[in-house]
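Hey, can you fold this?
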Amino acid sequence: MFMKPLEFDRRYGELDQVISACTGMPADDEPDEPSEALRAYLRHSWHTHPWALATAERQIREYARNPPGRLRLSLGEFYPVPDVGLPQSAIGDWLFVIADHLKRSIEEGEVPPPAAPGTHWEWHARFLELGQFLGGWFSQDMPDEFPDHDAAVRDYTTTTHPQLLARLTGELHELLALALEEPEYAFAVAELGMEVDPPQPYSPSGWLAHLADTLGRFKADYGPGPTATD
């Protein structure tokens, strides 16, 4: 019988976040040097929800101390670590190295300075709504679904809750505040799911600035206001 969501989160929720951050990246953490993937997790977590780091350290260490056998995994009672490019016999030691890095970061207050995301996972963790917007409305199918970019933006604004519109606007301003070079903005929007070019005559950063301005002027329709007789 598979675990219910609450039990899974209590036992493996933050462990899963760390493993997700490492999936697809080299698992080359050393005792004196965290991997690029772990640095990305630390940077994002310290600046958004630092209280989760201790939970991650505990869950990872407990899992490494008591690895599940095949039967428990088949019953869905344990978290199955995805393929991270290491032999099964090396997973436990790798997890202990990660737990030690997390513990050291917490105890010594090693807060990574703000920086542009360094991994695919970090781009999407930091710019969650922007990833939903670009990946959902500006995939390679966009030209078949909408006559132009403005029509896709209008469809998003008319079908999305105003609070999510505000979140997207904030993420656009945050991305622009990174002050990246133009090729880096092209890379950023591609990482976040955009599979078509910006509309002419905009560069990637120019279109992002245009979007931020356009969405910043958006006003939700709350229906007719009170009349003089109300």
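Oh, and this one too while you're at it.
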Amino acid sequence: MSIAFLVTALIMVATPGTGVVYTLSAGLSRGRRASVVAAIGCTLGIVPHMMATVTGLTALLHTSALAFQVLKYLGVTYLLYMAWAALKDKGTIAVEGETEPHPATRVIVSGILINVLNPKLTMFFFAFLPQFVSAGEPDSLLRMVELSAVFMLITFVVFTAYGIFAASVRNHVTSRPRVMTWMGRAFAGSFLALGVKLAFADQ
């Protein structure tokens, strides 16, 4: 495992994106447990991209403009829904003063969808992983799976750290209604901005 791969993966994961925003909002709205569950969901959302990469399906997505556009706009639609949910104080990203029962499966599914419906993640795997696998390596498929697993582990650790940090300041946020209001708007704006950015992304 090269240092270059670990550093590059860490930078890519730590850079704020949809998964980070979702995990932060889960930690602020429902505490530490919810943030860890959200991190699990976002991490599991990487699996389809990994499978697409190692089986060669990414090549189809890379060459087919229609396939890319369909997946892209599904992702945009879901991000806009998340923005609306944050703004309307509903769903898994509501910043609330009281902790309400919230099925872990719903939080996980939302996290999975956020990453599954992100074609840029597949493009990242397509362009990123092969750089660290030698062309003549006999077990190249196994090597790509190994690297993908490490990337997922880094994702889980970093996202969990983000979420636990958010949960640690939760009481300071929930005790201030004005802060909660602006926090909800900030998350809505973040999802909206990410959706717009994805909408204008090229293949």
